[in-house]
Structures are given as structure tokens and as C-alpha cells.
Amino acid sequence: MDIQGEKGPKIGCGIFGAINYEDQPVFPYVYWGLRAENHRGHQSHGFLTFNNNQFYTYKNLDLVPKVKTSAIDEWFGRLPGSIGIGNVRYTTSGKCDDQSIVEGTQPTTASLNGFRIAVSFNGNIVNTLPLKKEMFENFPAAIYNCDSDIVCHKMLLALKRTGDLTTAAKEVMESLDGAFSVIGITGDGTFFAFKDPHGIKPLCAGHDPNSKTFAFSSETVSFDMNSFVRDFELNPGELVTVSKEGFKRIQVIEKPREAFCAFEYAYFARPDSIFNGRYVYEIREEFGRNIVREFPEIAKDGDIILSVPETGDDSAMGVHEASGLRWERASRRHRYVTERAFILLNAERYSTIDKKINILGNKVAGKRIIITEDSIVRGDTTKVIIDKLRKAGATKVYVFVTFPRIIGPCFYGIDMSSYGQLIGSRHSTEEIAKIIGADGVCYQSIENLIKATGKTENDLCLACITGKYITPCAQKMADAMKKRFLEGYEEKGRIYENEEIQP
Ligand code: SF4
Q1: Single pTM value for the model
Q2: 262 C-alpha vs ligand 1 centroid, how far in Å?
Q3: pLDDT tens sequence across 160-186
Q4: 218 contacts 16 by C-beta, under 8 angstroms
Q5: Where would I find the H helices in 365-462?
């Protein structure tokens, strides 16, 4: 979902951190936690541990690597300590050379007059300009690689000034516009986590069965991989610290307005993660049932259901249940081409989709196909698949899309940063069908999406499908961008840093 010509990195991440109270190394927990979250970012990964008042870091490109048994001692030596945090990340625009990606890899550290802090962050900051100015005024030698640098330096400044973690977290929460779920370690070994006042990005807490290790994670699946007990999701505007006795929860922002990213349900999160007490896969199944209820005539015009790519599998089950149509495994995925199309660079995208999905011609020839898709962003993935189906002899192809038509950019950490890249911002549903070569495109309605999540309109961020942004800076920026887009301006540059656009 990159826009060519954008400058500067923009990130999406998975975060995990753990602390052990028996002096055991936490690296294995952080390692497996991050591996379980590699779908949230595959371009680079980073680990940081705290031991004897020192931070130890390891950062590299690509997926979290396999650790050979013979290399375990080396890894323990590299990342000693019983407190650790980690991050998987994708950078989707601007500087995508290897060095820039590694430099922008988290966790991030900052220090000032003996005060130190390390953070791992998931989200995106909207009002970066004043915050960067403040950062460079106080840290002239600082380098801005990603928004995590802003969060880290801001937190350190607030901590140094107030001497109190809760007050510092409150100051950060009140001065940043955007989405931020943060896990951190202070120079005195305090392990903490907090969520922005809207709770846009996921963050949850868990512990090992012996209650000796406590952890924070973007998704619950990382607790499952570590055989941990799932405890709770952090509330918006909540700070959580950890001691031997367990978690201490502090509601820093009173009466926050929750706005959890609705796209996590449709696409981003793993189906075996739990939000709001329910598995994501269950919600996706309901999405599928909803579309059949909304478009019964189209469902009747299909012979088989096909789910491509994998994130459409769970909704395909729902479509199957509600329509009675056979769900055919008529496409097979290359096992070792694991990149997600969403987070690939432009040039890579086309060829990788083409190489990782193969169609079983004898299953689709002469058939009317219903494809289940999680979303249509640019439309190029779906177009390639429909083209393959047509070539294989499909007579009709309908697309059932669980996430409603995306009409506006996301400023909160999902890489949809301009109107121009969104097929849904410029075209009606009928036009989209024509462009991607489908006989029909059926989007789940916003109302049904909300209902299926078990939340209400007031608990979710739906900005990219409604145009109503949660935070004031984002709304102003969206309005300014839309005006320029409609007037024919070329959308260039990282929008959060574009002085003409940023309020
Ligand atoms: S704008 Fe869309 S993708 Fe971004 S946080 Fe909101 S719902 Fe999620």
C-alpha cells in the first residue's frame, strides 16, 4: 500500500514485552511473542533487554529469524536480562533502503542527564511537526527515523520533568494526536505499558501459569504461543505497571472515548487472537453470514465459494453456512512465499501475488464463483485473482468484501495514507467491479460490521469508511487532503510531515 514518491518512513507494528521475577532470561518469551505477531510487520524486527542497568539491543531486517538450538547461548549472551521488549515492523514508503529500515527499527531508546527509557510502539502520530520541533530543541543530536522516536523522547522529557511515570504518561497521552500502544522500560527497570486515550491499537496483558512472568502484547495469540494466561485488554488512556504481585492498572485519562480500529477485525489481526472476549475468526464468520443476508440474490447466482487470500477464509465459512454453497479449495497458496500483499512494496506486489496463489482450473472451469475478500484497498490483488479465475474458465466472478468500501486514508498506523491510492475514494461500487473485472462487488454494510464486532459505533474507529476521524488533527488533515485531491493536486510526501497539510 505504498505511494511511490513518499518520503520518510511510516510504520505498522506488533509489540511484545515481558518481565520475569525469578531472574530468568525473558528473551525466549519475547522471541516467541514476536514470531506470533510477524503478520503485523515483516520488514524488520528488534529486541531489547535490560540487565544490570544496561539496555541490550538486536535489530535486523526481515522476519523474526529461526533460532537454531546451537545458537541459543549466543542469543542469550546478546540479549541478557529478565526484562525485555520487542517489535516487528513494516515500513511502506519513502526510505526503503535496508539501512533506513534497520535504523528505524524499534525498540527505541533515549537518554538525558542520566535518565533513560526504551519503548516499543504500535501506531502512528498525526501531529508530528510540533512534537519533532520539541524533540530537536531538547535533543539536538536526536535522529528522527519513525514516530517511536517522538514517543520515546517525549516520554523521557515528561519523566525527567515530573519524576513520575503516571504524570509523564498523562502528558504524553494529552499531547499526542494519533494512535499509540506503548510498552516501555525506564532506566530504573520499571516495566510499563499504556494505550492512547482512544485505544485505537490493540494491547493486552497476560502472565505465565506460575505468575512469575508478566507480559504485554499487541495480540493474545502471543500469549497462547508462550502458554501464558490471558488477563485483560488495556483500556484506552490506561497505564499499567508491573510488580511481583502482578499488574497495577491506573486510569490516567478519565472517561476516554474508545475507538478501536475496525480494520483489525477484518484484516490485520490474526484470526486466533481475541478482542473484546471473542476470537477474531468468529467475527469474520459472522461478516460472511451478513453479506449473504444482505445480498441473497447474488448468493443464489453462485456455484461455489472461493476464499483468496487467506484472510478471507473465515468469512468464506460464514458465507458457506448462510448460503449452503460449497466452499471449494480451488486456490492453493505457495507455502514458502509468505509475504502479505498488503505490506509489500509496489514493485514486489504484483509479482508476489501472482506467484503465491495458484488456481485449480478443473474446480473453477464453467463455474460461477463467489470470492470472499477481507477488503479492497487498491484493488490490484483482487484484479489479479479474478483474472486468473477467468483464465481458468470461471463464467462469473462475484466478490464478497467484509470491510466496507474504504473511502479515506488512515492516519493511525495502517498504511493507507492518501486518497489517490484508494480505489474506493474515487469510484462507486459498480465502477470498482468493472475495474477489477468482477460481475459484482458486495460490501458488508457498516451497520452489520459494527454489530458483528459486538461493539457499538461509539467504541470503534471507522474513519476510513465513514470519513469521520476520531482525533481533531486527523479530521483537519483529512479535510485538507480531500480538498486538494478533488482539486487535482498530486498527493506527495509523507502526509503527517507535510507542513502544507498538517494543521
Ligand atoms: S482509519 Fe480505518 S484502518 Fe485506520 S484505525 Fe481507523 S478503522 Fe483502522
Answers
A1: 0.92
A2: 6
A3: 999 999 999 999 999 999 999 999 999
A4: yes
A5: 380-391, 423-426, 429-436, 446-453
Distance 263 CA to ligand 1 centre (A): 6
**243 CA → ligand 1 middle, Å:** 34
DSSP-based three-state secondary structure for 93: coil
264 CA: nearest ligand 1 atom: 8
Ligand 1 probe mutation, 124, 125, 462, most atoms within 8 A of CB = 462
Q: Which helix (H) or strand (E) holds 109?
A: strand 108-112
Residues 6+ apart with CB under 8 A from 81: 25, 26, 27, 49, 50, 51, 52, 56
Q: What is the largest CA-CA distance in the chain?
A: 72
Q: Is 261 a catalytic residue?
A: no
Residues with Cβ < 8 Å from 255, sequence gap 6 or more? none
Q: Which of ligand 1's atoms lies nearest the C-alpha of 406?
A: 2
CB of 1 closer than 6 A to ligand 1? no
Q: Is the CB of 450 under 6 A from ligand 1?
A: no
221 CB less than 6 Å from ligand 1? no
Q: pLDDT tens digits for the chain (503 residues)?
A: 222 233 333 447 899 999 999 999 999 999 999 999 998 988 889 999 999 999 999 999 888 999 888 888 888 899 999 999 999 987 644 466 677 777 778 999 999 988 999 999 999 999 988 999 999 999 888 888 888 899 999 999 999 999 999 999 999 999 999 999 999 999 999 999 999 999 999 999 999 999 999 999 999 999 999 999 999 999 999 999 999 999 999 999 998 899 999 999 999 999 999 999 999 999 999 999 999 999 999 999 999 999 876 678 999 999 999 999 999 988 877 655 555 544 555 555 555 566 677 888 899 999 999 999 999 999 988 898 899 999 999 999 999 999 999 999 999 988 888 898 899 999 999 999 999 999 999 999 999 999 999 999 999 999 999 999 999 999 999 998 888 888 887 766 555 556 666 66
Q: What is the DSSP code string of 329-355?
A: --EEE-TT----GGGS-HHHHHHHHHH
Query: Which entry of 13, 152, 442, 461 is annotated as an active-site residue?
Result: 13
Ligand 1 atom with the shortest distance to the CA of 463? 1
Give, for ligand 1, the residue of 124, 377, 414, 482 to mutate: max count of ligand atoms closer than 8 Å to Cβ.
Answer: 414
Q: Does the Cβ of 168 fall within 6 Å of ligand 1?
A: no
Nearest CA to ligand 1 atom 8: 261
CA distance 197 to 403: 25
Residue 442 Cα, ligand 1 centroid: separation in angstroms?
20
